[in-house]
Design goal:
The protein has one domain. Helix content is 58%, strand content 0%. The chain is built from eight helices and no strands. It has helices at 8-14, 28-36, 46-54, 59-72, 83-87, 93-98, 100-114, 129-151. The longest helix is centred in the C-terminal third of the chain and has 23 residues, at 129-151. The relative contact order is 0.12.
């Protein structure tokens, strides 16, 4: 089964979650999550993929999707350029430790982005040099975390 064609609800069931999602109106995350349950992983916005990564939800499925998206657009995100890459800072070390293949895949991709082997979108220009420096600083930070987890 191709993971990209799975809905979030199907992923939840594959991971052993069978309870109906209860939406708590006072909790925005709850409403957002309930709203994406019937959407296929491939059809989620970059912002939703970044949010799933930040929440450490369904990483076994979401990280490969993030890798695909980042290989097409290293600046993927909803709220700012590089949001999806920056979300990787939220992934718990235990995920990387238990998924060394995925850890290695994302590290290789991020190194290609850092070395400018993967182009940024053609119509994109950095607003300031500082913005560009911050992007690459975050990129190197994630690469360092991944490298640490690959050597342990």
């Amino acid at each position: 089964m191709e993971y990209r064609k799975l809905t979030i609800d199907e992923i939840c069931r594959l991971e052993g979650f069978h309870e109906k999602i209860v939406v708590e109106k006072s909790v925005p995350l709850s409403g957002w999550f309930a709203g994406i349950m019937d959407i296929k992983l491939k059809d989620l916005s970059d912002g939703s993929i970044a949010r799933l990564v930040r929440q450490n939800f369904h990483l076994k499925y979401v990280i490969p999707e993030a890798i695909l998206r980042l290989s097409l657009n290293p600046l993927a995100g909803k709220h700012y350029e590089g949001e999806l890459i920056n979300a990787m800072n939220s992934v718990k070390n235990t995920f990387w430790e238990n998924n060394s293949n995925v850890c290695n895949d994302i590290k290789k991709l991020l190194m290609k982005i850092e070395n400018k082997e993967i182009d940024l979108p053609k119509d994109f220009n950095w607003y300031t040099e500082k913005e560009e420096q911050e992007f690459y600083k975050e990129l190197r930070k994630i690469i360092s975390v991944l490298s640490t987890n690959l050597t342990n």
